[in-house]
Design goal:
2 copies of one chain form a homodimer.
Chain A: E1 14-20, E2 33-39, E3 48-56, H1 60-64, E4 85-92, E5 102-105, E6 112-115, E7 121-122, H2 131-135, H3 140-152, E8 160-164, H4 169-180, E9 184-189, H5 192-201, E10 206-209, H6 215-222, E11 227-232, H7 236-243, E12 246-254, H8 275-278, E13 282-285, H9 295-307, E14 315-320, H10 325-333, E15 340-345
Parallel strand pairs in A: 8-9, 8-11, 9-10, 11-12, 12-13, 14-15
Antiparallel strand pairs in A: 1-2, 3-4, 3-6, 3-15, 4-5, 5-7
Helix pairs in contact in A: 3-4
């Protein structure tokens, strides 16, 4: 009757999910989430079922919770929370995806996701690059760093690069990529451990602890000749400080503004933006999805650097249930993660 | 003894000057200026003397009064106020400049200026394009509009362009240039007369009176499909409003921020800058001086459009003495001028 692979094992299996219950005001607390359970069903023709093993936790998620027009529609009240994730195909009625395939895609915060394959990548985890690395360095995170730095930042060899959120998923890759290109790299991060990690382990030239230092002053010392590329993940006062140190022709790549995402009042804008005029500099936003056609080439290059030991991927993997998602997400906004934050479904 | 041309007529002629007496806090009032008198002297070899006939009044002047590092050093206390100007050569000891030549250059706010020719242009006023036009459409003002719109704004035919300060010297040229390229052009200006002028005389598609209208709402009507190029002369709330209406891939050219130049408290930054990310847009500052090598070609093109009647230059010429400079400058910051503000030395 049906040539669905794998389904008999799955029938009537419970699928625990996290849904958006209410839009947050400020940090998204437990009241924001609903925990629901559905039953896994047989995939229709051209579809397959993925058992989610790893959920990616990303700052952009906070934006998806707001009911405002943006590059993607907001997550609707009652909908399964949107999330990039990795998993295994456990039932397939799709010619290109077989049971056992390891895949990444926007599967959401749930144990099982059905897909038609749109936006789904098959990945091949190895000892050096496990599944979480395919959500991190070799996934959207790495692509974000790569295209933000090389395309939007238009990096030239030997320039001075400053990156905020430098111990975060994207920032830690940005700095390493700039080092590969022979740049002077300064990372801005929160706390001595993160600062030590990016310098000692990742090879950044200098780190600024924004919790302990006056970033504007510290940049004078760490980037005495000014900044050619500022890669911004945080916004707020740190962006404003970086603007004061731009060199002639500098590029500011706007990747995110995590410092402002949970603000309950409209956050102020970068008061020093006229530095763009004085220094004939540009500030440009980007979204990694726009580069999807160039992902394969970039991922190949990144994988090569990873094999050669020139890039390191660090994942901050938390083991738990999908129901832990809300708590783990808060770690991200509190700056508690180092490297890519991933929820591994136990 | 000397082959200086023209000097005998000039010896012991008084040169009235305006010098910076004190740095302003807010609008530069009369206490900011000193009026001094020197005697015109014989130009040394390789130098010449210009009798200034027209002084250009530009928003950038306000920045030159502040003691901050910028693209140009501040005007020093006691120095003749820096200004672009036009005049006639009245004495020359320079092989390339003859008595009677009409020239433009950074001659300062004074009746006579000595020059070695650096940055000085010979111009050829006609009935259609008199001396003030060579400070306006065919001078730095026109060049600013041309390179800001075409190079920084990377204008493509048929796009939607919004320009602030639209009845000002630069803004009025920007809009006309965009119309020549078949764009939809919306100008933002202060007051019904200016709004009527840019639509009825200059051919803008729409005008928004920022003094009477909610700019953000008005942009929704005037640029219903969003903004491809926003050319900003004013900064502040108008920039912030424009950011909310950017299209995918929009360019914001930062030419100035006149609304903030006389602020006594640090003006807030553009809170909506994250629209750059959502719309993969860029905001870029520029200085016209960087394009100096391309001026001749651009000026030729502009002069052609002027002759063909496709461009109109409007100069708001005030007749007076150099000592009137301070009062005339305030007209600029009060938004009282339409087109290029010029002080003609009576």
């Amino acid at each position: 009757m049906s040539d669905v692979q794998g389904l008999p094992d799955l029938k009537n299996v419970a699928n625990h999910q996290v849904r958006l219950a209410a839009r947050p005001n400020g940090l998204p607390g437990p009241e924001v989430w609903d925990h629901t359970t559905e039953t896994v069903t047989e995939p229709a023709e051209g579809r397959f079922v993925v058992q989610v093993t790893h959920v990616s936790l990303d700052p952009a998620m906070r934006g998806w919770l707001n009911d405002v027009k943006s590059y993607a529609p907001p997550v609707g009240i009652g909908e399964v929370m949107r999330a990039l994730a990795a998993g295994r195909v456990v039932a397939s009625n799709h010619p290109d995806f077989a049971v056992g395939d390891v895949v990444t895609g926007t599967f959401g915060v749930q144990e099982y996701a059905e897909s038609d394959g749109a936006g789904v990548q098959k990945v091949h985890p190895t000892d050096e690059a496990g599944v979480p690395t395919h959500l991190a360095l070799l996934g959207m995170t790495g692509m974000t760093a790569y295209f933000g730095l090389f395309d939007v930042g238009a990096l030239r060899d030997g320039e001075t690069v400053v990156v905020s959120g430098a111990a975060g998923a994207v920032g830690s890759v940005v700095g390493q990529l700039a080092k590969i290109k022979g740049c002077r790299v300064v990372g801005i991060a929160g706390g001595p451990e993160k600062c030590a990690w990016i310098v000692d382990e990742l090879g950044f030239d200098a780190a600024i602890d924004y919790r302990a230092e006056d970033v504007r002053k510290a940049l004078r010392t760490a980037a005495p000749d000014g900044i050619d590329v500022y890669f911004d993940n945080v916004g707020g006062e740190i962006l404003d400080a970086a603007l004061t140190r731009l060199r002639h022709g500098a590029r500011v790549a706007i990747c995110g503004a995590i410092s402002t995402y949970n603000a309950t009042e409209p956050p102020p804008g970068p008061a020093n933006y006229m530095s763009l005029l004085v220094n004939r500099a540009r500030m440009e936003g980007f979204l990694v999805f726009d580069y999807v056609e160039k992902f394969p080439q970039a991922a190949k290059e990144m994988a090569g650097w990873l094999r050669e030991g020139r890039l390191h991927s660090r994942e901050d993997v938390v083991s738990g249930q999908v129901s832990d998602f809300g708590d783990v997400l808060l770690r991200l906004f509190r700056g508690e993660n180092t490297g890519k934050l991933v929820l591994q479904i136990a």
